[in-house]
Design a protein that fits this description.
Layout: E1 2-6, E2 10-15, H1 24-28, H2 48-56, E3 63-67, E4 71-76, E5 81-87, E6 103-104, E7 108-109, E8 130-141, E9 144-152, H3 161-175, E10 180-182, H4 185-192
Parallel strand pairs: 9-10
Antiparallel strand pairs: 1-2, 2-3, 4-5, 5-8, 6-7, 6-9, 8-9
The structure holds iron/sulfur cluster.
Length: about 190
Amino acid sequence: MHRLYETNDIVVFWNSDKCRHAKRCVTGSPKTFDITRRPWIDVTLAPTAEIWQTVSSCPTGALTCVYTHDIIVEIHEDECRSVAYVRSGSTGGEADTKTERGSQNGDVDNIYEGEPQGGIVGRDDTPDDRIQIGECDYRDTPDGRVIYHTEVSPAYGGKSIARRLVYKVIESAEHAKLPIIPTCSYARKVMEE
Ligand code: SF4
């Protein structure tokens, strides 16, 4: 099971396959991690620093955490994709020299070089005050949900945006009880990590 929990500041990823119930999270931030509650993680109930420190102490890597960098990631099930936006005027965090890897249709990397023109960035269908900077695309088939494309503008690389996009799609598939078929190499990597 893959889940992500978000505030304006941070995103916490949880992969239940790796959770070995050492319960360090429960003692580190008891309001955030409460195994008697559903959902058992609520990242709005404690200070960011406390949650970050607790996530960092997870011994198995079941919990990981990144800053949002003021980037919004949403699932659009009617369009069969998750989408990442930055608000116009926002820098989306400090510039980062590391390029986040997105992939398309199997193992073909699909990373914009230089300033993208007419691609995912600034699509016409984005809300007025937002600029689209990434997306993860899927289609639902009789065999399951095929995730076939993940892409993030390189100007926003190194911020785990692609991972957030894939997690949104996986989480939605799991809620719908659909098997996941990642033909996108990046989505496959996220599922295997
Ligand atoms: S500390 Fe990590 S492995 Fe242990 S219960 Fe919490 S999430 Fe699971």
